[in-house]
Amino acid sequence: MRAAAAGVALCLVAGCKILPIDEARALRERSSGAFDAKRYVETIWGGRAQKALADSAIPVERLRAEPIEQLGAAHGRRAGEGSPWTFVVSGDAQVERVDLDQPRGTVAVQTKAGPVLIQAGPVVSGTTIRDALPFVAFDGFPDQIAFAEVGTELTERAVTPLRQTLGALKPGDRIRFLGAARPSAGDAPLVVTPVSIEPAGGSAPAAAR
């Protein structure tokens, strides 16, 4: 689920310049000490992060039924003015297709709000898990590399434990999901990074623990 970057803008006291990501990481470690994103995510995931995600979830149908700016102001998060809104959504759905035979594996489901693609990985796009958490903000980390690493680690922490559950689904199965997403354009399927998956009539969810 990791993505490589060709370079990164590293802002120092004297200004900003573009550095290869490995060089920027080394400079950061020399100047401010190494930041352990995996350890940070393990620290927050089991209690604070999962609770915050569950508490902020809205029914997926609302993304299609209500004005996004109004809904975002009440229930979404975004990095800055003009940035896209990120939401935590929940919903009941019927499985239509399971496609895990490629790196960007997905499970296609149908909800009352329309089609949804649940990301299963191992390659997962975006940082919607990070961006949906109200206490994870850019200015709380040493630099943009640390912030990016936290986004990657949060995605891995959420999705990896769910791959077996997602892979066992069959067309026609009914599930309940919770995950983070950004509204899709037009009739395109909503892409959800999952946090939990459970049978629609089940009890204990299959969630990242």
The name of the CATH superfamily reads Nucleic acid-binding proteins
Secondary-structure arrangement, i.e. CATH architecture: Beta Barrel
* CATH level-1 class: Mainly Beta
What spatial order of strands do you see in the largest sheet?
Answer: 4-5-6-8-7
CATH topology value: OB fold (Dihydrolipoamide Acetyltransferase, E2P)
What would you say about this model in short?
With 209 residues, this protein is of the alpha+beta class. The protein contains seven helices and nine strands. The chain has one domain: Nucleic acid-binding proteins (OB fold (Dihydrolipoamide Acetyltransferase, E2P)), CATH 2.40.50.140.
Would you kindly provide a written description of the structure presented here, covering whatever features stand out?
With 209 residues, this protein is of the alpha+beta class. It has one domain: Nucleic acid-binding proteins (OB fold (Dihydrolipoamide Acetyltransferase, E2P), Beta Barrel), CATH 2.40.50. It has 7 helices and 9 strands; from the N terminus they run E-E-H-H-E-H-H-E-E-E-H-H-H-E-E-E. Strands 4-5-6-8-7 form a 5-stranded mixed beta barrel. Strands 1-2 form a two-stranded antiparallel sheet. A hairpin with a 2-residue loop joins strand 1 (8-12) and strand 2 (15-19). Helix 2 (37-55) packs across helix 6 (144-159). It is globular. The two termini are 18 Å apart.
